[in-house]
Amino acid sequence: MNLHLLPADNKLFIPKFIEIAKSQPFVQTNLLLCYVCELDISGSALQFASPDLVINTIRRKGVNRVIFHSLQPQAFSLVKTIKETAPECRIDWVYWGESYDNSSSLMGEQTIIEYIRERGVPSLLSFLAVKIKLAHSLIDYRTSGFRSMASEIIKYIDTFYHWSQIDYEHIKRIFRHSQLKYQMFFYEVLNSQILDNHIIERELDCMASDCIVVGHSVSMRNNHLDILPVVSEFAIENNKTIVCPLSYGSANKKYVQIIEKNLKRFPKLSYRIMSKFYPETEYFAFLLKCGMYIAPGRGSLGAGNMISYSMAGRIPITDYKNTVGLFLKSIGAEVLLYKNYKEIKTFLQNYFGGYCEKNIAVLKEYFSSANKQKCYENLLSPI
To answer: How far is Cα 101 from Cα 135, in angstroms, rounded to an integer?
Structure first.
């Protein structure tokens, strides 16, 4: 018997997972609980997974495998409780791109300088190199506790479910978990309905072809401040518009103001801060038609945007340390990886508005219906 522990506050993956799981032949051997909050999802109220309920369910139902969909911090104590009270129970992990890197390694220099300003590092530290070194230490210290807790939990994981072996190898390397197994899994091809319908016309579409979309959320890890000067230079010279989607993620109004202030430094620049939250279909219909999408984050940021953009026959730009970009390259898709910010302008000059038929074929084969069915069978089958 399998027990799935779901972060039920997620409205993107989990409702679809429940819907598909119920249609599979192994539905009777899979139980669902949520471990973040009690919500009514897809018409089925999921019971909150308190430690007592989880252990009682494991014992009463003969559960021999617990599958965590995402390992959010709320799950850490549950993993430990399961291993202490039911050590024979196997624990698996469906990975959602959680970052366990040292945070400073994900940030560009200008982003780190802004981090210093925001937290009021004393002005006595006048040497920039000293400031940046201190900021690296400060940022990593703030995340070291989380990473330490995660390392204690991840050692209990048997199988890592994800669509990218690049991320699997990365996690294995970070936590030195050589015994961690890999199994391919994805919930669904995001926005396949848009691709199949040749992209619907909506409010945003009228401006899409002349746009450069930078980043995907309100997060310093998008490194907006590092790449916007280079992208702005190209946009001004070529009469293009920069669009920064800043409606997804934490409600960090201060960061939105910082981005806008940065863009206003270029008086001739046409730009748009996308602070309104658009429906998923409308946002992706716009994204897939824009002249270029740049994912400036390192680590596993921007997966849905980059994969959907590539699947529409487009070629995204991203950092060479972005594991989604490395994944796309590993399966044969075209992706533009920059090692320094000056390369971005060259990519824009050579590839803006470009089309790549190969990307459609490569990604549709990888994220095919047949592969999706295999993924669900592997995840839901009893062991």
So the answer is: 16
Q: Tens digits of per-residue pLDDT, 84-96?
A: 999 999 999 999 8
**Rounded to whole angstroms, how far apart are CA atoms 116 and 134?**
9
**CB under 8 Å to 190, separation ≥6 — which residues?**
12, 284, 304, 307, 308
Lowest-confidence range among 57-66, 134-143, 230-239? 134-143
Whether pLDDT at 198 is above 50: no
Q: 97 by DSSP, 3-state: which?
A: coil
How far is Cα 73 from Cα 99, in angstroms, rounded to an integer? 12
Cα distance between residue 221 and residue 215, in whole Å: 9
Nearest to 184 by CA among 378, 32, 334: 378
Looking at residue 379, what is its pLDDT?
96
Q: Could you report the per-residue pLDDT of 279-321, keeping only the tens digit for each?
A: 877 888 888 889 999 999 888 888 989 999 999 899 999 999 9
- One-character DSSP codes across 142-173: HHHHHHHHHHHHHTT--EEEES-HHHHHHHHH
* Average pLDDT score, the chain: 84
Instruction: Using the Cα atoms of residue 347, residue 350, residue 311 and residue 357 in order, give the sign of their dihedral.
Output: negative
Compute the average pLDDT of residues 248-259. Answer: 78
Q: What is the pLDDT of residue 87?
A: 94
- Write down the pTM of the prediction: 0.86
* Of 71, 228, 206, 233, nearest in space to 146 by CA: 71
Distance from chain centroid for Cα 206 = 28
Nearest to 329 by CA among 315, 347, 349, 350: 315
Residues 6+ apart with CB under 8 A from 227: 108, 214, 294, 296, 341, 344
**Sequence-distant contacts of 252-259: CB under 8 A, at least 24 apart:** 252/218, 252/219, 254/118, 255/218, 255/219, 255/220, 256/218, 258/114, 258/225, 259/224, 259/225, 259/228
All domains in the chain, ordered by first residue: 2-94+155-189+369-380 (3.40.50), 103-139 (no CATH), 192-366 (3.40.50.2000)
Within the chain, residue ranges assigned H as helices are: 14-21, 51-61, 73-85, 109-118, 128-154, 165-175, 192-196, 224-237, 253-263, 280-287, 303-311, 323-330, 342-351, 357-366, 369-380
